[in-house]
């Protein structure tokens, strides 16, 4: 870290001015460097924490050096950085002291101390030097009394056997050694005699001479310990190492790459990362996106390497079995993208494309984003058969198919049209025969479909609006809904009711009967058609007055959709009382919008009693409304409905336009039938 990093620390100490004054302290702490190995260069960090820092403090650290090797060593100050708390560097000054020699430095002249040969220790030698820090300047009061931690980084260099490296600038002579050696320092030169070694070095202020020609070397682990001078023995500490962290981005392996590296050794190369599905490793990068292939010997600090990948691309092969591929089908796909869909193949004569399959016969409609590997898709075909339509002067919709394929079939057919006739369906014969609604997936062979028709008579009326009354089949009728299917292209299929009742007193069911019988399958209206109830009364009237007459051509076939008990008790039905077929109550029975008469389904020409579904659905009466003028008649205003009502022993009825309740099944009321008629305004 450069001196600019200290500005934050000075800001912290600047707060000292706001605190009460206190005596200047002079902290003294001893540390020791023990050197045990000739063959190395090492960086050693020393973290020193100072507490209660205030302006004017002078903090002193004595560093003792004990060289146990046969070579001399140089100690350099490589760096000072703040590693905890904030204080600006320009509030601090430093001194490197060795005997009478003092090297001062601060934020303005760090080059005076950084990377200089500040201390030399001879073979088997000992010595000491002092680092002194002074807190200058005006600290902000908020920093007065704070703590901070400084990290001093020293470099220890080995001299070749017998050599002593002169100190840059003539600052520091080698200290006396343990063998009784003698050190002499003058203004022009320095002489060191080391007992039996007999090594002499002369250093002047203008020239430096190493008699042995020795230079620093960088061969391995030199410094074994940098620790407080506790006198508790030698601490085995290797040369400075740093962590390497790998961000694999979905991979699973680092290729056996190291998790640490050592200063002066570095890492020559890195193996590729592995294990990311559907991707190929392209290289390591640092946090700025720069490629990283190695770590040099001179680099320091922890490293994070980021694995970079590229998604794999795979081939797609199509086996067409005599057909042609669609140009939109891709020849390749990419992992994490896949293929959303494939177009069908075409062009195989006498066949229709059914699907794409893989080599195991499994249908393929897409390739998922997570799939890998090359793919081969096989086109599957089915033989086609002809469909012929006999229309009897009708018109066939263009979207009815003229062919079908085994394994596919035809789900449904559209209705043909013929002016003045109602289409009854497609059949296997021109008359009678079996009705054909579809062609199954297992069918084979050519097919001929015959259109069956029923001549229709459109009833001419003066007005088609609800409430309009007109004559039909010898009786007066009232329009309740102008068009039951709301599709004018096939005419107006009106819902109508007979104005005069066909019976003034008919029961629904026998006394003591429930609307749903015990199994819940048959409802009250269907059962009333098999006994002398209102259903039978209506059916008999239709048979005697409409069926087989010319008037029947205007009658539209309908389905009544009468419910079972299970269907009836689904939402919105609520048990307000009771819990079964024989004891239920539903207080909002008149709001039931279900089970309306329809023109589709299992239809037949018939007369019928209205349901609440007809009232709300076809007639458009709101569910909160309990009466309508469309049900007010001048004679005998009450009549039965086919729907269940308030409770298990009630069926619905209308009285003077109001929706009523509480009449038991055997209570006798008038009966008014309804029809669906094809009408047209005159």
Automatic annotation (TrEMBL):
GO cellular component: cell envelope
Pfam families: Flg_new
Keywords on record: Signal
Subcellular localization(s) per the UniProt record: Cell envelope
InterPro entries attached to this UniProt entry: InlB-like_B-rpt, Listeria/Bacterioides_rpt_sf
Region (Disordered): 166-216
NCBIfam families documented for this protein: List_Bact_rpt
Protein's name in the database: InlB B-repeat-containing protein
Organism for this UniProt entry: Pseudolactococcus laudensis
Lineage: Bacteria, Bacillati, Bacillota, Bacilli, Lactobacillales
């Amino acid at each position: 870290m450069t001196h600019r990093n200290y500005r934050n620390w000075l800001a912290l100490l600047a707060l000292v001015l706001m605190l009460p004054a206190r005596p200047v302290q002079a902290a003294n702490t001893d540390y020791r460097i023990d050197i045990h190995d000739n063959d190395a260069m090492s960086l050693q960090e020393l973290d020193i924490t100072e507490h209660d820092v205030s302006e004017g403090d002078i903090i002193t650290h004595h560093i003792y050096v004990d060289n146990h090797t046969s070579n001399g060593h140089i100690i350099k100050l490589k760096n000072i950085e703040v590693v905890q708390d904030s204080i600006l560097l320009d509030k601090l000054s430093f001194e490197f002291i060795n005997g009478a020699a003092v090297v001062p430095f601060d934020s303005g002249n760090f080059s005076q101390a950084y990377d200089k040969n500040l201390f030399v220790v001879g073979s088997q030698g000992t010595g000491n030097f002092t680092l002194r820090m002074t807190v200058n300047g005006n600290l902000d009061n908020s920093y007065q009394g704070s703590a901070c931690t400084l990290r001093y980084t020293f470099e220890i260099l080995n001299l070749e056997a017998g050599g002593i490296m002169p100190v840059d600038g003539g600052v520091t002579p080698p200290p006396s050694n343990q063998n009784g050696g003698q050190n002499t320092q003058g203004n022009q030169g320095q002489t060191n005699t080391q007992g039996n070694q007999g090594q002499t070095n002369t250093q002047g202020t203008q020239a430096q001479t190493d008699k042995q020609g020795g230079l620093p070397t960088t061969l391995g682990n030199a410094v074994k310990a940098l620790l407080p001078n506790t006198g508790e023995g030698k601490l085995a500490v290797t040369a400075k190492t740093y962590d390497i962290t790998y961000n694999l981005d979905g991979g699973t392996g680092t290729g056996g790459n190291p998790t640490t590296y050592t200063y002066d050794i570095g890492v020559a190369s890195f193996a590729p990362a592995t294990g990311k599905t559907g991707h190929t490793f392209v290289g390591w990068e640092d946090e700025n996106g720069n490629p990283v292939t190695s770590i040099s010997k001179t680099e320091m600090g922890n490293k994070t390497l980021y694995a970079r990948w590229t998604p794999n691309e795979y081939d797609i092969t199509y086996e067409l079995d005599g057909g042609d591929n669609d140009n939109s089908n891709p020849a390749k796909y990419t992992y994490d993208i896949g293929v959303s869909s494939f177009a069908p193949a075409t062009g195989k004569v006498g066949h229709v494309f059914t699907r794409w399959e893989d080599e195991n016969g499994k249908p393929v409609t897409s390739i998922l984003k997570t799939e890998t590997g090359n793919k081969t898709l096989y086109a599957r075909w089915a033989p086609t058969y002809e469909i012929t339509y006999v229309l009897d002067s009708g018109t066939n919709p263009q979207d009815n198919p003229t062919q079908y394929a085994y394994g596919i079939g035809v789900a449904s057919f559209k209705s043909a049209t013929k002016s003045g006739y109602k289409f009854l369906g497609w059949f296997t014969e021109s008359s009678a025969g079996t009705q054909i609604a579809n062609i199954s997936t297992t069918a084979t062979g050519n097919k001929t479909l015959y259109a069956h028709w029923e001549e229709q008579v459109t009833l001419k009326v003066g007005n088609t609006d609800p409430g309009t009354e007109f004559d039909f089949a010898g009786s007066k009728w009232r329009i309740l809904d102008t068009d039951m299917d709301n599709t004018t292209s096939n005419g107006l299929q009106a819902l109508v009711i007979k104005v005069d009742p066909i019976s003034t007193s008919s029961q629904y069911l026998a006394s003591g009967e429930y609307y749903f019988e015990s199994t819940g399958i048959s409802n009250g209206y269907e059962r009333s058609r098999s006994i002398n109830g209102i259903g039978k009364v209506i059916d008999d009237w239709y048979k005697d007055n409409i069926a087989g007459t010319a008037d029947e051509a205007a009658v539209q076939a309908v389905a009544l959709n009468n419910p079972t008990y299970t269907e009836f008790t689904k939402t919105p039905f609520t048990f307000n009382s009771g819990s079964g077929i024989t004891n239920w109550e539903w207080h909002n029975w008149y709001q039931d919008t279900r089970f309306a008469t329809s023109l589709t389904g299992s239809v037949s020409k018939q007369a019928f009693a209205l349901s609440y579904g007809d009232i709300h659905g076809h007639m458009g009466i709101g569910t909160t409304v309990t009466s309508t003028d469309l049900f007010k008649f001048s004679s005998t205003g009450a009549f039965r409905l086919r729907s269940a009502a308030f409770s298990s022993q009630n069926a619905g009825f209308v009285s003077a336009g109001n929706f009523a309740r509480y009449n038991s099944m055997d209570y006798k009321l008038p009966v008014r039938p309804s029809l669906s008629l094809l009408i047209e305004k005159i």
